[in-house]
Amino acid sequence: MSRVVVVGAGVAGLTAARDLAAAGHDVLVLESSPRVGGKLLRAEVAGVTVDVGAEAMLNRRPEGVELARELGLPLEHPTTASSRIWTRDALRPLPRSLMGVPLDLDALAASGILSAEGLARVREPAAATYDHDVAVGDLVDRRYGAEVTDRLVEPLLGGVYAGHARALSARAAVPQLLTLAAGGTLPEATSDLPVFAGIPGGMGRLPEALAAGVTVRTDATVRELSRTGSGFSLVVGPTTAPDVVEADSVVLATPAAPSARLLGTVAPMAATELAAIDYASMAVVTLAVRAADAPALAATDSSGFLVPPVDGRRIKASTFSFAKWGWVRAAGAETGDDLLLLRTSLGRHSEEAALQAADDELVAWSLADLRDAVGLTATPIDAHVQRWGGGLPQYAVGHLDRVARIRVAVDAVPGLAICGAAYEGVGIPAVIASAHRAAARVSSGPG
């Protein structure tokens, strides 16, 4: 039985560890922070435990929902409440789109999101074929006009990557756009499955359930990784009291920067490429208000709204969790105060300075924008601020080529594997898929 050390106890590392343990390996997970879960985290707000990180996963991609079912976790789909765009000083319906690129021009026209000139530009044919990677925003600007990028694509991409459309790779982030830009059409959706799924009680239950089945050491920072004659040596813990852990194989399920640091001597080419991957920071502000103090909000038929950065607001989105998820509404009602739980998000790539504000300032900014957007004037009975410093990798133009080079360099080292959000997708199912791949590589043996 071989000894495998997994570095990182986010959903990627824990999934890889579960796979490896099931394959008969002796597995140890080392996590630098005091807890497991990475960007999946739950916290109590006004007596209700809710997600303060990712709150949903794609349902039409199988890896996430299949894993939840294997762990015995229930699934719940969002309600039929619809999302809006807060732009041009009004909440407007979000037309059917591909990451903001409109697929229903009549609905787009009716929404009032674009000016007459912007709408006319969308209707102009401007097909272009790309044989190279290009930024999402540059592609959309050329094909559909800058207004589509600014008022539709930016808020949607900002929600997924906390990045900017004119800096993110089309091939890596939205490859279907290349088909549309060339004048092609997308295949008709054949699935009637809901797009998203969540877990009653919070997505944070997923890593908690994974961790229950493997051995995890928290507060265990891996400071050095080196090759030995038969495997690897890891230096763990504070510099004043280092602990050396030996392993036959290692899986790095850490963000790009710590992975680059650890691979400096083991796989230097991979380390160089990983060091070039940038990250964005953001914050999630969760608020609890009494339904009696916000009757209009309590009666909403909306699940929240997105905010284009061009409109100059502080927040980039708000999710009315009580309207989006039945379990959140039920949990709020059971408190005795009939609470409405909602949240805002703030921060995009290169805008980290905005997140240097104090927690009470982030709450105040959120309440000011919610007042302007939906007329919310109620005073919250509780608020929670979760900061995600360096939380989301930025898939710059050329990202997939960089990932290919990283994998070639890592694959040249027997017993070494990588996984996580830095590579082929930031969503939960994509991250889980990368973990399955890493575990399979280690289990397959040398070469």
TrEMBL record:
Position of the signal peptide: none
Naturally occurring in which organism (per UniProt): Nocardioides mangrovi
Protein name from the UniProt record: FAD-dependent oxidoreductase
Sequence ranges assigned to domain Amine oxidase in this UniProt record: 11-442
InterPro entries in alphabetical order: Amino_oxidase, FAD/NAD-bd_sf, Zeta_carotene_desat/Oxidored
Family annotation (SUPFAM superfamilies): FAD-linked reductases, C-terminal domain, FAD/NAD(P)-binding domain
PANTHER family, alphabetized: PROTOPORPHYRINOGEN OXIDASE (PTHR42923:SF3)
Pfam families: Amino_oxidase (PF01593)
